Amino acid sequence: MPQDVYNKLMMLAKRRGFIYPSFEIYGGVAGFYDYGPLGSQLKHNIETIWRQFYLLKDSCVEIHTPTITLYEVLKASGHVEEFTDLTVECNKCKHAFKVEDLVKAGVSAEEAVQNGDVSCPDCGTTFTEAHPVNLMFSTYIGIGTGRPAFLRPETAQGIFTNFHLLYRYCREKLPFGVIQVGKGFRNEISPRQGTLRQREFAMAEAEVFFDPENKNHRNFPDVKDKILYLFDNEKEMKLSLKDAVDQGVINNQALAYYMYLTQDFLLTVGINPKKFRFRKHGGDELAHYARECWDAELLSERFGWVECVGIADRSAYDLTAHIDASHVDMYALRKFPTPKEITVKKVLPNMGKLGPLFKRKAGAIQKALEAMTTVPKHPLILTIDGQKISVPSECYEVVETIEKQVGERFVPHVIEPSYGIDRIIYFVLEHSFEEIQKKDEEYRVLHLDPRVAPLKVGVFPLISDERLVEQAMDIDRLLRDALLTTFYDEGGTIGRRYARMDEVGTPLCVTVDHQSLEDLTVTVRDRDSTEQDRVPVDTLIAYLKKRLG
RNA sequence: GCGGAUAUGAUCUAGUGGUUAUGAUAGUGGCUUCCCAAGCCACUUACCCGGGUUCAAAUCCCGGUAUCCGCACCA
């Protein structure tokens, strides 16, 4: 089989300590990968830049919530329902199927099984028992009568369940954004595509809360003329943010702004602009919670266009769901320019009369009366528990009060940029990978941006002469004290050591040679051009930091 | 999950029932004192797992696992 970029890259990644298949000594498990020493640093650098974008360029705040998530949270959010498939298992041949796949379109899966209409396509045995299978990892908190829980399929719910606290933290002003960087878990039926579909994966999400009547963004004017790379499933187009919003291609400023932030981020960490686009979701592929969604897609030589970031308008879906389920006040307040005074008529129940008259039903009647928004007619007939009850007028009185309203309550809308970090890491590697022929040999270079490169500077003595070694080690120490991640290497020929650094994407190499002993200068070699500068040691740190950006 | 293919050191690979399991690359130590994977010497590392057939299995058969290619799934 000819080796494609994916194969070559994954071999390099394993050999050089970026990515390893997990549990390999026990045969490995699909959908799990370890990050080695260099992969961990690369991931760390990418996440650090991501935080700079969301905490500094934008003004989000960061939180951390548990990966183990209570059943009730995901029940309320719709994940328990939407994530479940009814499945059957054949007792005879042990094959498992989704019932949906075995019945005709439009037929209820549950009914079909109950009626004995579903049989095994492999051996013909009729299925009598179906059980729901959820694509989330489930567990219990505590033992015995522990509370059911799942490993979270997204970090977002941890933000939604804290909304009321965060709203207060942000001084009860919209919009505000909250980020979380962490792990998510999905028990994929059959993960393929290597590291692109993992069962445990790193994600970085932002939930930005807006007043639904104003989805403008404060930074929008600064970037309105920047160009977005868009694809509407038919043609690719380049539009400025302003034009995209004005023409209705993108629904609102907030979506457009976070799309630009995403584009800027991806290009900063080293994604090839020619292998990047935004694609709008069609109505049939929208998630259960989403209203409009744009994916940032990256082009892989093997896998084609792959979704790496989703930017969704989740509207009020999640907060509404949690308000309904938990009854916690997660409303925001839209203040009026000046408070309004409204005369309202209220029905005040007279419990002294109601109690003796209706006994047990008095409580329900009290609630019904208090909930009334119009002045009751005589005689007042209420329907309590399906029973019509006539309430005499002495049981309540109608009072007129003046209520002061400072604003109106509403459920905020949320714009969610959600990043698959592992996918981005893969693409940063694939897009920076280059293989060239050098003297009949394949020579591999990772053109990583200096900001994401796990190692910044290689430090070598030209030869293993004691005096050169000593000076090289001193320089290595000097650079580390200046917070530069270095790699000291004195093994093998100088060419081999340069090659090793090129293969892991180290942007610069410092070499100590005989001249260095005389005039305290070193050579600095550039990864991409292989050109060398001779630099005095006393200005080396400033020189390197400038070159590294 | 279905169908097909594949599985030998870190990587690529030879090996068609009996080998001390082939070679190369990489790695490590040394020599060389050298600016782009040079050379020389030495060394480390492998038959995916479990059953079966056979006097004898890396090799044949069955099952599992993983990977790859289609299909399905991918909130």
CATH class of the largest domain: Alpha Beta
Our count of helices gives 19
The total beta strand count reads 28
* Large-scale geometry: elongated
Indicate the CATH topology of the largest domain.
BirA Bifunctional Protein, domain 2
Distance between the termini: 41 Å
Question: What are the low-pLDDT stretches, counting only 5+ consecutive residues below 50?
Answer: none
Q: What is the overall pLDDT average?
A: 87
Walk across the major sheet and give the strand order. Answer: 3-10-11-21-16-15-14-12-13
| Count of structural domains | 4
CATH superfamily of the largest domain: Bira Bifunctional Protein, Domain 2
In short:
The chain has 549 residues and is of the alpha+beta class. Helices cover 31% and strands 32% of the residues.
Model description:
- There is one protein chain.
- The protein is α+β, with helices and mostly antiparallel strands.
- The chain contains 19 helices and 28 strands.
- The strands form eight sheets. The protein has a nine-stranded mixed sheet.
- Strand 22 and strand 23 (about 440-445) form a beta hairpin.
- Helix 13 (about 350-360) packs across helix 14 (about 360-370).
- The two termini are about 40 Å apart.
